[in-house]
Write a structure and sequence with these properties.
alpha+beta; Glycinamide Ribonucleotide Synthetase, Chain A, domain 4; 3-stranded antiparallel sheet; 3 helices; about 20% helix
Amino acid sequence: MIEFNARFGDPETQALLPRLRSDLLDALLRAARPGGLREFELDWSEQWAVTLVLASAGYPESPRLGDVITGLERVGPGIEVTHAGTARRGREIVTSGGRVLGVTALGDDPAGARAAAYAAAQMIEFAGKQLRSDIAARAGEGA
């Protein structure tokens, strides 16, 4: 048995849901009724998705809180930015946890999705921002 556990806030889910073309609420309501998913199929985009996690300084041991986040308004259309460890402080958005933001991009191939995600992530700034540089680096190998 293989179990795939992905909650709505998990980076794994953040990479899946932007590909979903079906109405998620409709699917959930159907799933709550006996037989509601009979003759129902989810419609998925053929595009690839890559999600990057922007982490705060000190993550995972002791994430620093309160660093001002800038550049969110520069992220273009087609990019999903999911707030995870953020808070409002007046008019500012600040870090409030270890995994601060998820940045998800779609592309026609793994390289395109990866390039778009990293370009969007570079537009977002906060002191001590951590970002792995190897996410999806091998996704297209052998594909």
